[in-house]
């Protein structure tokens, strides 16, 4: 029988989101979905995820960023023993001003985001960086269960 898992508390979901630093951001444009694997930093004080996008002049990413009203960030972990955890954050993306980036956003991103090496991110010729915040409206998490008891791996 498939393990459908159990809900986790908001606090556990927030901790997992903060610990991961990477996930898949799902965007949409006229009914077409687009998933972007990315790194992020979770700002617990303002309940948002900070993201730095590196885009080219003609990339699909820019098109989808401009047209997505509601976005979803999914992050998960699957262990070889079959245990798993996942968190889904849903909300809106908004561009960050240079002042916001300089104030705290960049520090949060670079301290928590997985694989956030600045030199590698800017190596592509003609690449531009843009900063966004995912303003979280809903946050849900689930984890695998053994019998009726939830695992404690998120604590």
Number of helices: 4
- What percentage of residues falls in helices of 4 or more residues? 10-25%
- Rounded to the nearest angstrom, the distance between the terminal CA atoms is 26 Å
Q: What is the number of strand segments?
A: 10
What is the C-level CATH assignment?
Mainly Beta
Structure overview:
The protein is an alpha+beta fold and 155 residues long. The chain has a single domain, classed as Pnp Oxidase, Chain A, CATH 2.30.110.10. It contains 4 helices and 10 strands. The strands form 2 sheets. Strands 1, 2, 3, 4, 5, 6, 7 and 8 form an 8-stranded antiparallel β-sheet that branches. A two-stranded antiparallel sheet has the order 9-10. A hairpin with a 5-residue loop joins strand 6 and strand 7.
Q: Key terms for this structure?
A:
155 residues; alpha+beta; Pnp Oxidase, Chain A; eight-stranded antiparallel β-sheet; two-stranded antiparallel sheet; 10 strands; globular; disordered C terminus
